[in-house]
Amino acid sequence: MARRTPLLALYLADAISVTGNVLALVAIPWFVLEQSGSAALTGIVAFFTTLATVLASFFGGTFVDRLGFRRMSVISDVASGVSIALIPVLHWTLGGIETWALIGLVFVGALLDAPGTAARSSMLPDVAAIAGTPLERAAGISQAIRRGGTMLGAPIGGALILLVGTEGVLVVDAVSFGVSALLIGLLTPTVRHAPAEDAEPAARPGYLGELLVGIRFIWSDRLARAIVATIMLTNFLDAPLFSVLMPVYVRDVYGSAVQLGILLGAFGGAALVSSLVFGAIGPRLPRRLTFGLAFVVAGLPFWVLAASPPFALAVAVSAVMGLAAGPINPILSTVMFERVPPEMRGRVIGPLTAGAWVAMPLGMLMAGFVSEAFGVIAALVGIAAAYLLVTLSIFLNPAMREMDRRPAVEPDAPMA
After folding, report:
1. Cβ neighbours for 43, distance < 8 A, ≥ 6 positions apart
2. pLDDT, tens digit, for every residue of 16-60?
């Protein structure tokens, strides 16, 4: 059991952190809509939140390698919790919070949160090896837990808004960061990896040199390039759904934050189920085919939502999206962990995440203004058409065939 404790602690910390973040995902756009009624302003807040994540992922990955996975995770959680806690504190003490201050605190919170998320992701192969759990299974369980956080956090967030207000929900989010920091700090090991055989310790490059090493690794790997390009485009199209379009859509069509929470929860619950199923049978599935089909199916419900269906059908559609989305991240995580040297995880995963997310701020900003100018239904139709074209290209890109090339041996185990 002792060998499994670090893995279980990582799972639990991720579950708590993701649940807290989903509470904020529900509370912050609803708070903006309550205060301003503006879809465009909601998109602006989402723009700065995601921009912070992109910047932190790109520049923070090298710090993850330098400081160590556990230390970076703890520092990030504590700092993020403080920045999020300041939102309700300022709102209560000043009798309201200015929009610029809200944007600034949300930006800082996301800026500090991203390196912690990258650090916990980078820890997964290490603690899985310590526990003796196959990487593909560990990745599937990890993503299932994160999906479960979405499933629980979204409806809880919607209900808590009615009970304690958006400010109270943000206090809960801040506390979740503290709990995550304690779990990682107390129950996971500090791990190290032997450097490459040709590495010279005295010649270790500086921060910028290490950052460039990670970028060059991504650029030299054609599968990594193909993944970044595909995810960048799909994220540009679908990222606004939950942070901008869905809050506006639910307000206009159904009218309640509770219904927003139920829709997000249906997505998370279905994604939890499919992630667990993938964790059990994933090693036997063809990766590229599973990856491509999951993406294509995930985009189809956009068309249904554009028809303003009854709420029960909207919940079912959200669940279909979740079922399709479940295998995507476990496949991506497994493929990249197999290809990236352990001592380079932070500086590769950071820029890789930044590249995948770089278009998301623009997508959220555009979604807000398009919804304001033409209506949320028009925005959904445009996204649905473009999404189908992008996801079908997965089957035409020859680089994606390398997904099915599994390594002859498992990644090296860490030294505790």
Report:
1. 240, 244, 364, 365, 366, 367, 368, 369, 371
2. 888 887 888 778 877 777 777 776 777 777 778 777 877 877 777
Q: pTM of this prediction?
A: 0.63
One-letter amino acid of 414:
P
Backbone angles phi, psi at 50, to 5 degrees: -75, -35
CA neighbor of 390 nearest in space, from 221, 236, 224: 236
Q: 379: number of CA atoms within 13 Å, CB side?
A: 28
Q: What is the set of domains in the chain, with CATH numbers?
A: 5-185+221-404 (1.20.1250.20)
Nearest to 376, CA basis, from 215, 255, 245, 269: 245
Instruction: Give the max Cα distance, the chain.
Output: 65
| 185: CB partners within 8 A, 6+ apart | 70, 74
* 48 or 195, which is more confident: 48
pLDDT in tens, 109-118: 888 787 888 7
